[in-house]
Write a structure and sequence with these properties.
Helix content is about 30%, strand content about 25%. The protein is an alpha+beta fold. The strands form two sheets. The chain has a six-stranded antiparallel β-sheet with strand order 2-1-11-10-7-8, with no helix packed on it. A five-stranded mixed β-sheet has the order 4-3-5-6-9, with helices on one face. InterPro entries: Cell_Proc_Reg/RNA_Proc (IPR050923), FHA_dom (IPR000253), SMAD_FHA_dom_sf (IPR008984). Pfam families: FHA (PF00498). Keywords: Membrane, Transmembrane, Transmembrane helix. This is FHA domain-containing protein.
């Protein structure tokens, strides 16, 4: 039984093909796991922010006028907001593409449930709800909830707001 160079070459190609196929499957499984973890993280964050309880009607109404406003300063390609639009801050303000968010942004880079602005201990806080493209505060990507101050610029997708 004589093994030629051609036979060895074919064997190596077969092994490489099998390796590439398994590597491709590994990448697919990794993406699926990441997406699953992101959605469960998003659900945990929302549940923690809202304490997994229904929001009383008094919290859905606008907060007092002196408590803060979000002013749109850049619209990106969103058609649901216009530059200069003003949103009165509410005690709990989900922002994203979904129709039941307080601020609905149809920008290509905005997730369904993108970020949450909430009043805690007399101060406004913003948190990213495991969005794909992140939420930015004064040009820095949010890794954890941060307090907001007057003049801060919030970036969600290509849309930018200023807190007043």
């Amino acid at each position: 039984m004589d093994i030629s160079v051609f036979d060895i070459f074919i064997l190596v190609l077969r092994v490489l093909l099998i390796f590439v196929l398994y590597f491709f499957l590994f990448l697919i499984v990794r993406v699926i796991i990441r997406e699953f973890n992101a959605s469960t993280k998003r659900a945990r964050l929302v549940a923690r922010e809202l304490d997994a309880a229904p929001i009383p009607e008094q919290y859905l109404s606008p907060a007092p006028s002196n408590s803060g406003k979000l002013v749109v300063i850049e619209t990106g390609n969103a058609t649901t907001v216009k530059s200069g639009m003003v949103f009165d801050l509410r005690p709990v303000m989900p922002i994203g593409r979904r129709q039941d968010n307080v601020i609905i942004l149809n920008d290509d880079y905005v997730s369904t449930e993108h970020s949450l602005i909430a009043m805690r201990d007399g101060q406004w806080w913003i948190s990213d709800i495991a969005s794909t493209n992140g939420t930015f505060l004064n040009g820095e990507r949010l890794e954890q909830p941060r307090a907001l101050r007057a003049g801060d610029v919030v970036g969600i997708g290509r849309v930018k707001f200023r807190l007043e």
